[in-house]
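Researcher: Here's my situation. A collaborator sent me these components and asked whether they could plausibly form a single complex. I don't have experimental data yet, so a predicted model of the whole assembly would be a useful starting point for our discussion.
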Amino acid sequence: AQTVTQSQPEMSVQEAETVTLSCTYDTSESDYYLFWYKQPPSRQMILVIRQEAYKQQNATENRFSVNFQKAAKSFSLKISDSQLGDAAMYFCASNTGNQFYFGTGTSLTVIP
Amino acid sequence: GAVVSQHPSRVICKSGTSVKIECRSLDFQATTMFWYRQFPKQSLMLMATSNEGSKATYEQGVEKDKFLINHASLTLSTLTVTSAHPEDSSFYICSAPDGSGSFDEQFFGPGTRLTVL
């Protein structure tokens, strides 16, 4: 089984500033993916970014980037130039095959 | 990306009634779909894996006789909450991989909010 831990229930960031959301995971699998999902008030889950565990290079998607530390089993999300629309719940997740394991989420508030 | 729909988006029912929730993959075929339950301000908890043409696989602690899953076709899975009670009130989300790779991206439905009075 896999476990995913998000130690920050809530975070806030000033608009245009940078914020980092933490995530650690535990798995015995050698091949897996890691994801960050965003869940806005509409409750629709939206994929933000994903990282293949076998890739050493950190994934980036525009203003979103990850710091993947495989040995430490750490997978943090950095949001640069934060925008009001970034306000949402953010879930870290890992998967092996099709089965996903989600963290407990971090509620991000963006302060205008 | 692939689209997954759910119907209804919200439902209110009386205690003791059964409620059916549909999950459809709109532009791709899904031999496997997943059902999650999310309580307020909590994470998604996997309830079961729906397999087309075979029985669903339930997570530990999930009553298979209460949460009936039928994966009738490659684009439709249904979750029926039988004899619903107020403690079953929750947000139910389905997801499906699009089958593009060995570690498929999951596409999530918009969710169904169930309120049992």
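Model: Some features of this prediction you could bring to your collaborator: The radius of gyration of chain A is 13 Å. Chain A has a mean pLDDT of 93.
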